[in-house]
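@channel sequence for tomorrow's demo:
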Amino acid sequence: MLNSLEAFILGLVQGLTEFLPISSSGHLVIFQRLFGLHDVITFDVAVHFATLVAVCAVLWKDIIEILKRPFSKLPLLIVVGTIPTALIGVLLKDFFDSIFNSAVTLGFEFLITGLVLWYAESVRSRNKGLKEMTYTDATVVGVAQGLAILPAVSRSGLTLAGALSRGLNREFALKFSFLMSIPAILGAAVLDVYDTVKAGSLSVDVLPLVIGMLTAAVSGYLSVRFMLKVFSKTSLKVFSYYVFALGIIIIIEQLVSGKYFGKLF
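C-alpha cells (generated this afternoon):
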C-alpha cells in the first residue's frame, strides 16, 4: 500500500519530470519499482491530472484566448495535432500497456529519448512562429506525441523534437508542446479512469492521494515556469546526457541482477 512519504516522492517526481524532456512515466516506473509498488493506477491518474492543473495555471492567458477564439489558427493546430496522438493512443493502448507493465525495455526507451533530443538539437531552426506554422507541422508534432506513449520515451522531448525538426523557433515550440499536453494528459486520464472503473480496481487511500496531487501540482507548476525561462538558452543535449546515463544504468541492472527491471536475457 502506498504510504504518505512514497506519495510525496512520486508526486514530486511526476511534477518535476512531466514538463522536462526526460519522461515522467519512465521515472514513475523507476520509483514504483524501487518502492515495490504495484497497481497504483488511481494514484498515477491523480498525479497526472495534477500536472494538467499546473500547466493550465501557468498558461491560463493562452487558454482563455483559445476559448475566446476557438476557430482561430492556434486551437485548430492543437486539434489537428491531437488527432494522430489520440489515434495512436487508442489503437495501440493495449500493446503499450504491456510494455509499461513489464519495464523490460525501459532502459532502451531512455536511450531513444536521448537520441531524439540529440537529433533535435542538431536541427537548424527556421524561426517559424504561429503565423508560419502549417497543419502538416502540427500533424508531425502530434505523431511524435503519440509515439511517446512508451513509458520512458518523453512526451515533451518528442514533441519538442518534432516541432524543432519542422523549423519552429524554440519559444513557440515549447509553448505549443505545453498546450498540446493538455488534451493529451486529459484524454489519457479519462481512458485510465474508464479502464480502472471497468476492471473494478478503483481504490483510493485519501491522504497519500492528496499529498501526491498537491506535490505534483506545485512541482509541475515550477517545472513549467523553469522550462519557459531557460529553454531558449539551454541545449537539449544537457537532458540527453541525463537520459543516456539513466538508460545505461537500468540496462546494467538488468544484465547483472534484473531484480527491479527484469532480466534482459
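heads up for whoever presents: Residues 4-256 form one domain.
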